[in-house]
Write a structure and sequence with these properties.
alpha/beta; nine-stranded mixed sheet; eight-stranded parallel sheet; 14 helices; 19 strands
């Protein structure tokens, strides 16, 4: 009995359904659901009962794009796997998929082993890995096959950051051809980095050094051009494509056109592109540095096409690209030269709440909220139905969510290991109350009851959107 939990009286919301139901959890999994008040529900017995009356009972969030402890520009992301996954849990996310990095000249295996070492025994919630491929050669391509077999089924490439992660079109094509054969999914950072570097150099030569110029040189047209090129390369290779952190209306249009043509092309956006804009990048006294990330924030009129893309399923997923750097001592590295500001911002704790606010604001439905934050990323990255839903047999990753609680997002109350909030002072409706990870309470009525090491590595199958 003690390993059994019953959640009573809540509104169970999944991507497919909403129903007032009681949920029985046994041995870390969902054992059964029954309509509240029925004889079947009354028959549920357990050592622990959670009253969810007036609350939503939703699947734990799946954040398919995080960068814990990521080295970048002479520093590294300020959240460790311990602090970052704890913050994820506070925000109702119970699975992250982080990025292991292949070093230039190194093997994929060395990169993956290094990231396993960082994460193992430190995570509060479950985790998986994508692989950043930064050095395409014959050995790397063979390794891709082996990684897919052991559950690392997605590979990220960069059309940006020459000299660091950049792959040219030939390298991208070769990796895509390999993925077409082994079932892997290529994830693309789609920006024309070669052209952007020219614009950066020219801007700095003109004395344009403030953070806002980061957004001005990384032009929307160069995101759209790279997105178009990535789609065509994937088409030539006969491979599926997932474009990460889509920020520009012109890039959404490229994805929509590809999908209308029947191509297996997918896209994610992130809360920062839905809620923030170039107005933030232009904040005075170097405050704009807090909002430097790539792809960059766009003018506010790009937000509506992103919401539209999420409603029409031209964008399937909202991830965070959580990659925090403290303002003091890290973002400040770029004072006097915006190109030296570490790229990335915090968000793993805020995603579920911001997207619930989008429900309140009428941008998306309740079920679409769960789709883009839980079910779709689980399907995209081969974790469904173990993750991303509430159904018999699924892991008991469950969030009790109070849709009526108001909160103010702030660095003074968040749990991410970073000295600012990208959403400081923003009022949102809705708040996580209790979080279960595989049936274990990680957050209990707004108190942290989890522990480092509860979270386990989770191998993934291949993308479940493909035949």
């Amino acid at each position: 009995m003690s390993s059994r939990t019953v959640i009573r009286g809540g509104l169970v919301v999944t991507a497919a359904d909403e129903m007032h139901a009681d949920v029985l959890i046994e041995d870390g999994r969902i054992a059964a659901l029954a309509a509240s008040g029925t004889a079947a529900a009354e028959a549920f017995t357990a050592g622990r009962t959670i009253d969810a009356t007036g609350r939503y009972v939703i699947p734990g969030g799946v954040d398919g794009h995080t960068h814990m402890e990521m080295p970048f520009g002479g520093t590294k992301a300020s959240d460790t796997f311990e602090t970052g996954t704890r913050a994820a849990a506070w925000g109702g996310t119970t699975t992250i998929v982080d990025f292991a990095i292949q070093s230039r000249g190194g093997s994929l295996r060395e990169g993956l082993d290094a990231w396993h070492q960082k994460a193992e025994g430190n995570c509060a919630v479950d985790y998986g890995f994508h692989m950043i491929v930064s050095d395409v050669n014959d050995e790397t391509l063979k390794e891709m096959d082996l990684l897919v077999e052991e559950g690392v089924t997605s590979f990220k490439q960069f059309m940006a950051y020459p000299g660091v992660f950049y792959s040219d079109d030939g390298q991208i094509l070769r990796a895509m051809q390999r993925a077409a054969g082994n079932g892997g999914l290529v994830m693309m950072h789609a920006e024309n980095g070669i052209a952007i570097d020219v614009l950066v150099e020219q801007a700095l030569a003109r004395g344009e050094t403030d953070p806002r110029f980061h957004g001005e040189v990384r032009k929307a047209l160069l995101e759209a051009e790279a997105t178009h090129r990535a789609v065509r390369l994937a088409q030539v290779a006969g491979a599926p494509l997932y474009v990460v952190h889509v920020s520009a209306r012109e890039a959404v249009a490229e994805l929509a056109a590809a999908r209308d043509a029947g191509l297996p092309v997918f896209g994610e956006t992130c809360p920062q592109y839905l809620f923030l804009s170039t107005d933030n990048l232009a904040e005075p006294d170097f405050e704009g540095a807090k909002y430097v990330c790539s792809t960059p924030l766009r003018p506010e009129d790009h937000q509506a096409p992103l919401w539209q893309g999420l409603r029409t399923d031209d964008l399937q997923v909202v991830s965070t690209d959580h990659c925090p750097f403290c303002f003091a001592g890290q973002k400040e590295l770029g004072r006097g030269d915006f190109s030296r500001i570490p790229n990335g911002l915090p968000g793993v704790e805020n995603r579920m709440d911001l997207l619930h606010q989008a429900v309140v604001d009428g941008h998306i439905s309740r079920r679409r909220w769960i789709e883009i934050a839980c079910a779709a990323p689980a399907r995209m990255f081969g974790l469904y139905p173990k993750k991303g839903t509430i159904a018999p047999g699924a892991d008991a990753d469950v969030v009790i969510y109070d849709p009526h609680a108001e909160q103010v997002l702030s660095a003074t109350t968040h749990h991410m290991n970073v000295d600012y909030s990208a959403y400081e002072g923003k009022r949102v409706m809705g708040r996580v109350e209790t979080v279960l990870s595989r049936g274990e309470p990680v957050v209990t009525e707004r108190e942290y009851t989890g522990r480092a090491g509860h979270g386990v590595y989770t191998p993934r199958s291949t993308c479940q959107y493909l035949d």
